[in-house]
Amino acid sequence: MSDEGEIPIPVLWFRKEWIDSNAKALGVYVALLLVRFRVRLRTDIPALYSEEGKIEGRLKPYLSIFLRDKDKKLIDAAAIDVGKEFFMRLVDHTAYQDYEDVLDCIETDFYETFKEAYLGYVNANVNANVTVTGNEFTGEILGHDTAALIRTFLRDVSANRFSKGKVTPAGSSILLTPFGELMEFYGLSEEDVQRFLEILRMIGIMFFDVVPAPVLEREFVDGLSGER
Questions:
Q1: Residues near 3 by Cβ (< 8 Å), separated by ≥ 6?
Q2: What does each C-alpha distance from 187 to 44, 46, 151, 182, 192 come to in angstroms?
Q3: N or C: which end of the chain has fewer CB within 10 A?
């Protein structure tokens, strides 16, 4: 991994001030993962780039998971602003065929910064004992302690037990069939799987079916506990 003070040659347009705070680094990282996994390059990119408010509308639901007040309203607009600026510069300076390589380069070279920011907010959600439709992180799912089930899930993702689509060099991935595989591997009902996925997404361990690399770090996984 390169020194984070050096801008990799393929992305000379990347600005260090975009990641000089945790909130801004989170905005860039979520935008990066969104484009890497959840955007169709040739059809979605032009619309996200040209239509006013479109990219902000895609970023806000994810960033609100981390940067929200007690009423679940976004409290740090800078994260969206820098995420949008990052996206616009990416489109201005990158050919379609180079998107994945450039995004992977940025994630790898600034991984420690992204990891610190992302896990900081995930841990804050865990410590706050996130409640999802009346169900708390500290509860149980089909007799499984929720925290223990999350640890098992993340270890299984790391071990490639779950089917994956795209995977970045840093280790972020998109799961292909998590719903069915959660039922198969852990004996969960459809209702239990739905609840479990809601918890994962509201904590920030997943968004849609994307599992960001930082949540697979052994120190984070081993430290997960419902006893907060």
A1: none
A2: 37, 43, 16, 7, 9
A3: N
pLDDT tens across 112-127, in order? 999 999 999 888 777 6
Burial of 182 (0-12, 13-18, 19+ CB in 10 A): buried
Is the same domain home to 18 and 101? Answer: yes
CATH of the domain at 213: 1.10.10
Q: How many CB atoms lie within 10 A of CB 183?
A: 15
Structure confidence at residue 1 (pLDDT)? 39
At residue 95, the 3 state secondary structure works out as: coil
Query: The dihedral of CA 139, 140, 145, 146: what is its sign?
Result: negative
Check residue 227 and give its pLDDT: 45
- Give the residue carrying structure tokens 């930082």: 214
Question: Is residue 13 pLDDT above 50, yes or no?
Answer: yes
Angle between helices 41-50 and 54-66 (to 10 degrees): 90
d(CA 29, CA 51): 22
CA dihedral (177, 30, 58, 93) positive or negative: negative
Give the β-pairing of 135-136 and 131-132. Answer: antiparallel
- Indicate the pTM of the whole model: 0.86
Q: Does some domain include residue 2? A: no
The total number of structural domains that make up the chain:
2
At 147 the pLDDT is 85
Cα(200)–Cα(157) distance, rounded to whole angstroms? Answer: 13
